[in-house]
Design brief:
The protein contains 17 helices and 60 strands. Its main location: membrane.
């Protein structure tokens, strides 16, 4: 609403006095025969001068700029003024000032001084305020138009006094309140326009009394209630516009009595019920809009009686049933919109009779069957949308006959067959959407003839072959989406001709080629997705040439090399995904320049070194995934500045030090995954304040201490994993921890709680986080910094030596290394230390073994391989630090009668499966492969749950696949392969042989009762595989991957009873690899 303008009060006051004196007073008092001298007050009539005064007074109330538009309004004859019309008696009958920029109100216009007014038109101005009730005194008024202003307030009921009114237009204002019932008095009214206001309440029944009505428009208000049945009385009505309200109830059958109706617009309401069949009586109807309601039931066949219909829009309802064949009678129909309903059945072939049709949209229904061939008869069709149905069959060749077609959308159906070459005839086509079908064959070269095409979407089909070279002819192409097909070959060079192309999706195909060729061909890219293909090479360097790029996804390809620092020039990037490639080097610091980035995914590569602190400057970042790399160093504290982060995934790296407390500031964080790292210290209490956190993974780290009490308030947490740490104390009382399986908190030191697999918490444990002793504090400081840890090893060792006595821990110098268990002062086992002895001259006599173990264990990480924590190198003594496994070695277990009996068949088979898994990973999952060379029961360590972990990698070798691998003897007699007697060549079959010996040692134990049920099958299979591993010819031994797969498969049952199985059945002389 326009504000009330400021006026110059002194000038206008003087102007008003002059008008009053010279126009009113002087003529009345100076003439002896003036009306005031001759007439009494009761018979006094208005003069022509009084009309002029009323108009001048109103002009004076308007703002200054408006008054300049009315400069002709002066002391001259008012019938000559702009916008004024008079009758022969010089009485004002017309006031027509539409669209001249009037600004002001109607309150300054004295309607009682304009009794002869017939037409009042002030439309399309800047008039504000209310409609004065005095307007009801204009008894001769036939036309009132104040539309397109800023009027507010209610429609005065006095409008009902304008009995001569024929046209009333109050549209496009800010009027509120109800439509007055007194409007029913306007029996001569033919046109009522109240649309685009804020009127409320219901449509008054009295509207039905206006039998002269031809036009009624109440659209775009807040009207409620039902459409009154009395509306059926308006037999002369030609247009009825009630759209964009909140009308409810059903469409009254009485609508069918409006035989003169040409336009019926009831869309965008809350109408319910069925489509009234009586609408079929409206033979003059040219436009029927009922869309965006909640109409149900079927489309009545009577719709076919509306032969004059040009536009039919029934979309976005709940209509069901089939499309009536009678719709083919609508020979004048140009637009047919039935989309977003629940229509079923086939598309009637009678649709082909709608020869005038230009727009056909039947999308988002449940239509089935094939596309009728008759659709090719719709020669004037511009848009055809049949998408999101259940259509089957092929795309008919006849589609190529629709030469005026601009948009063809058949996506999300079950169409089969190939894309017809006749589609090349559609020279006006701009949009072709065929995605999400089952189309097969190649993309036809004729697509290149669609020179007007801007949008091509063929994704999620079964298309094969290459992208046609003719696609380079599509100079206007903006979007190319062919993802999720089986396309092969390279991207055609002609694509560089598509200079308008800005959105490209080629992902999930089998395309190949050097990645730089893609970027060079598409300089104007905004959105590019190439994931899940076979693109190779190093990432493009010239990022400044792609200034508009916002999204780049090239995951799951064969990219290599570094991420170039020049990527920081692509400053418009919002999403960057380079995951699952072979990228090396460091995460570039220049990524910090991509301030608009909200998704950064670099997971599953071979990136190394620290996470750059510049990542913390990405204030828009919501998703950060650096998992599955070789990143080291601390988690950057500056990540706490990425306050919009929702997902933070740093798992499967070598990150160390403590979890920074700054992560507790990420209040929008939903998923936090820091598992499988070397993180130490305690869990920061701030993590428990992340109220939006849903999943938390801190497993496989070196965390210790109590779980913070703040975790008790994590109500959103649904999944948690804290396994394989050194945590203690009670589990939090939250649903996530209560519902967590044993695997989610296993392999910690002294966790307690109400779960069956945990001991109950004592009072001391429950309050332990408040009364932790000095030794725990010392230990946390030692573990938190790796350098201090190794510096302290010697101190702790000497303390233990002094405490226990030299004789108790005197090492065996002949072995050059010893294993010591390091305890804290309260007797709690923390880590295992392997000590290497130096010779008298200070040189390390077993340097090769020491360095070999470090090199090997830093390259591999597996749940069945002992976890390497660090090392300390010194001329006299060097140390390797490991996770301590409380169960001891398998050799110790098997040597002790009591402990051997505790290793039942299930646990023994798990040992065999675990070791086969670890060796399969070392031989086939590492690059280069790792050969252990010293597998024995002494080098298999068990945890408290008797889970096996392979240890002692001092003799391990990284297998060079491109050269010979010869060495001196290594291993344990009885486990070493026999070929080592005549050759020193290292290969994975040495480990296979040792595994076979170890397996037989594990399962051939008479002390255990005979296996039963599933254990029988597993033991027989293990023995059979072990004997295969012991074949004299190394080439005849299975690979560890084959062994692991065989042990993992579901068993099919024994062919013979367990006790009846012979050695011959266990031996298999077949040599598949010979």
């Amino acid at each position: 609403m326009a504000s009330v303008p400021k006026r110059a009060p002194n000038f206008q006051a003087v102007h008003s006095i002059i008008i009053f004196v010279f126009v009113i007073i002087l003529p009345l008092v100076s003439s002896s025969d003036s009306p005031i001298a001759r007439a009494s007050p009761s018979t006094q009539k208005f003069t022509k001068e009084s009309e002029a005064v009323a108009l001048l007074m109103w002009k004076a109330s308007l703002d200054n700029q408006t008054q300049s538009h009315l400069s002709s309004w002066n002391e001259s004859s008012h019938c000559t003024w702009v916008g004024i019309g008079c009758n022969e008696a010089s009485e004002v009958t017309n006031l027509n000032l539409d669209n001249i920029g009037l600004r002001g109100t109607l309150s300054g216009l004295n309607f009682s001084l304009l009794p002869h007014l017939v037409k009042l038109d002030l439309s399309n101005n800047l008039i504000y305020g209310t409609i004065p009730s005095q307007i009801g005194g204009l008894s001769r008024l036939t036309s009132l138009n104040v539309s397109i202003n800023h009027l507010s307030g209610r429609i005065p009921s006095e409008v009902g006094m304008l009995r001569s009114l024929i046209e009333l237009d109050l549209s496009m204002n800010n009027l509120t309140g109800f439509i007055p019932a007194s409007i029913g008095n306007l029996r001569n009214l033919t046109t009522l326009y109240l649309y685009e206001n804020s009127l409320s309440g219901s449509i008054p029944q009295e509207v039905g009394m206006l039998r002269s009505f031809t036009h009624l428009a109440l659209s775009t208000n807040n009207l409620t209630g039902s459409i009154p049945a009395s509306i059926g009385n308006l037999r002369n009505l030609t247009t009825l516009y009630l759209y964009k309200n909140s009308l409810s109830g059903s469409i009254p059958q009485d609508v069918g009595m409006l035989r003169s109706l040409t336009d019926l617009e009831l869309s965008t309401n809350n109408l319910t019920g069925s489509f009234p069949a009586s609408i079929g009586n409206l033979r003059n109807l040219t436009m029927l809009y009922l869309f965006k309601n909640s109409l149900s039931g079927s489309i009545p066949r009577e719709i076919g009686m509306l032969r004059a219909l040009i536009e039919l829009a029934l979309q976005t309802n709940n209509l069901n049933g089939s499309i009536p064949a009678s719709i083919g009678n609508l020979e004048n129909l140009k637009s047919l919109h039935l989309y977003k309903n629940s229509l079923s059945g086939s598309i009637p072939q009678e649709v082909g009779m709608l020869r005038s049709l230009t727009d056909l949209d039947l999308s988002e229904n449940s239509l089935s069957g094939s596309i009728p061939l008759e659709v090719g008869m719709l020669k004037f069709l511009i848009s055809l949308s049949l998408h999101t149905n259940n259509l089957t069959g092929s795309i008919p060749l006849e589609v190529g006959m629709l030469k005026f077609l601009i948009s063809l959308s058949l996506h999300t159906n079950n169409l089969t067959g190939s894309i017809p070459s006749s589609i090349g005839n559609l020279r006006n086509l701009t949009t072709l959407h065929l995605r999400h079908n089952s189309l097969s064959g190649s993309i036809p070269q004729e697509v290149g003839m669609l020179r007007s095409l801007t949008n091509l979407e063929l994704s999620m089909n079964n298309l094969t072959g290459s992208i046609p070279t003719s696609i380079g002819n599509l100079r206007n192409l903006m979007r190319l989406v062919v993802a999720k097909n089986y396309l092969t070959g390279r991207i055609p060079n002609g694509l560089r001709n598509c200079s308008e192309l800005f959105r490209v999706r080629l992902d999930q195909n089998q395309l190949k080629g050097h990645i730089s060729q893609v970027f060079e061909a598409l300089p104007n890219l905004v959105y590019l997705v190439l994931s899940y293909n076979k693109f190779y090479g190093e990432i493009w360097q010239k990022w400044e040439q792609l200034p508009n790029l916002t999204c780049l996804k090239i995951s799951n390809n064969d990219l290599s090399g570094n991420i170039p620092s020049s990527i920081g020039s692509a400053t418009q990037l919002h999403l960057l995904d380079l995951s699952s490639n072979h990228l090396v080097g460091e995460v570039p610091k220049n990524l910090g320049k991509l301030v608009l980035l909200f998704n950064l995914t670099l997971s599953n590569n071979k990136l190394s070194r620290d996470i750059p602190p510049e990542i913390g400057s990405l204030s828009s970042l919501q998703h950060l995934d650096l998992s599955g790399n070789n990143l080291s160093g601390p988690i950057q504290r500056k990540l706490g500045k990425c306050v919009k982060l929702q997902n933070l995934k740093l798992s499967r790296n070598r990150l160390n030090e403590t979890i920074p407390y700054e992560l507790g500031k990420l209040q929008f964080l939903q998923n936090l995954d820091l598992g499988n790292n070397l993180l130490t210290g305690e869990i920061p209490p701030g993590i428990g304040n992340l109220k939006s956190l849903e999943t938390l993974n801190l497993s496989h780290n070196l965390l210790f201490g109590f779980i913070p009490s703040s975790f008790n308030g994590m109500s959103s947490l649904t999944s948690v994993d804290i396994s394989y740490n050194h945590l203690e104390g009670p589990l939090p009382n939250t649903k996530a921890f209560e519902d967590a399986p044993f695997q989610a908190y296993r392999n910690n030191n002294r966790l307690c709680g109400n779960k069956t697999s945990l001991m109950p918490c004592s009072l001391k444990q429950s309050i332990g986080d408040k009364t932790r002793n000095y030794n725990k504090v010392v230990l946390s400081v030692v573990v938190s910094t790796l350098g201090i840890l190794f510096l302290s090893v010697a101190v702790i060792f000497l303390l233990r030596r002094n405490e226990m006595g030299d004789n108790e821990i005197e090492p065996n110098r002949a072995t050059n290394r010893d294993l010591f268990e390091i305890w804290s002062f309260d007797g709690k086992l923390v880590v295992a230390i392997k000590k290497f002895h130096g010779s008298q001259d200070g040189e390390l006599t077993n340097l090769q073994s020491f360095t070999s173990e470090i090199r090997t264990l830093t390259e591999i990480r597996h749940r069945h391989i002992i976890r390497f924590l660090g090392y300390c190198s010194h001329p006299r003594h060097s140390f390797l630090v490991y996770e301590f496994l409380e169960g001891g070695s398998l050799d110790t277990k098997l040597s002790c009668e009591e402990e051997a009996l505790c290793l039942d068949w299930g646990k023994r088979m798990n040992v065999v499966k675990g070791l086969s898994n670890a060796l399969s990973y070392m031989h086939h999952g590492c690059s280069p492969p790792v050969i252990h060379r010293n597998i024995s029961s002494k080098n298999v360590l068990l945890d408290l749950e008797d889970v096996a972990h392979l240890s002692d990698f001092g003799t391990a070798r990284l297998l060079n696949l491109h050269s010979s691998n010869w060495t001196s003897f290594a291993g344990t007699l009885g486990y070493a392969a026999p070929e080592l007697a005549y050759t020193m060549e290292v290969n994975e079959k040495l480990d296979v042989y040792s595994f076979g010996v170890l397996t037989l040692e594990d399962v051939l134990d008479k002390r255990l009762p005979l296996p039963r049920n599933q254990a029988e099958e597993e033991v027989v299979l293990a023995v059979k595989l072990a004997l295969a591993c012991l074949r004299p010819n190394p080439r005849c031994r299975p690979t560890m991957h084959q062994v692991f797969v065989a042990l993992s498969k579901q068993k099919s049952g024994l062919q013979s009873p367990f006790l009846m199985i012979t050695l011959g059945q266990l031996l298999d002389d077949n040599c598949p690899n010979a």
